[in-house]
Design goal:
By secondary structure, the chain is an all-alpha fold. The chain starts with a helix and ends with a helix. It has helices spanning about 1-30, 40-65, 90-105, 110-150, 160-170. It has a single domain, classed as Up-down Bundle (Four Helix Bundle (Hemerythrin (Met), subunit A)). α1 runs antiparallel to α2 and α1 (about 1-30) packs antiparallel against α4.
Length: about 170
């Protein structure tokens, strides 16, 4: 079961985040550098590396903990609340945005900042109008408790005692 989830997640990783954080930025910039200052290039490289690491971690959580994929056509069997999901509900989207912003800095391409803003606006609408209602119906009280305990977009770097206790008590859906 996990092998199928891993294969499906890999395909989805290449298609969705691969297009959003790779193909579209390349189409907008050809990844041609405008020779930004070295400090901006370093910040960009760090954002890309951090975004890629968080994205891969989040995808792994879907396979290991959720036994499924991030793709709506092959959802997880269990609510994913560990790893990066303990600190923010949408680490994948934030990781993709960080990767896009990192490319804007690395290549000195402000158009990619506009794209990152548009990406986040579309994603926020998708999460609010589709994902949250679907997760609420699928996982019920467990998702509502998780939603109350963990912020959607601004990661909490430290969990409070109540949040840790709540996440430990969440029923496995």
């Amino acid at each position: 079961m996990r092998a199928r989830a891993a294969a499906g997640s890999l395909v989805f990783l290449l298609v969705a985040p691969g297009a959003a954080a790779g193909l579209v930025p390349w189409l907008l910039s050809s990844w041609d550098s405008a020779d930004p200052p070295l400090a901006l290039e370093l910040i960009g490289a760090l954002l890309i590396a951090a975004g890629a690491a968080v994205l891969l971690h989040a995808f792994a959580r879907f396979v290991i903990e959720g036994v499924g994929t991030p793709a709506p056509v092959a959802p997880t069997e269990h609510l994913v609340v560990q790893g990066a999901y303990r600190y923010v509900r949408n680490p994948m989207y934030l990781a993709v945005a960080a990767t896009i912003v990192g490319q804007a800095a690395l290549f000195g391409r402000p158009a990619l900042l506009l794209y990152a803003a548009a990406f986040m606006a579309v994603v926020a609408a998708f999460v609010h109008l589709y994902e949250e209602p679907v997760l609420g119906r699928r996982f019920g009280e467990a998702y509502e408790a998780y939603r109350d305990a963990v912020p959607a977009w601004c990661p909490r770097l430290r969990q409070g005692v109540r949040t840790r206790a709540l996440l430990r008590r969440l029923p496995r859906s």
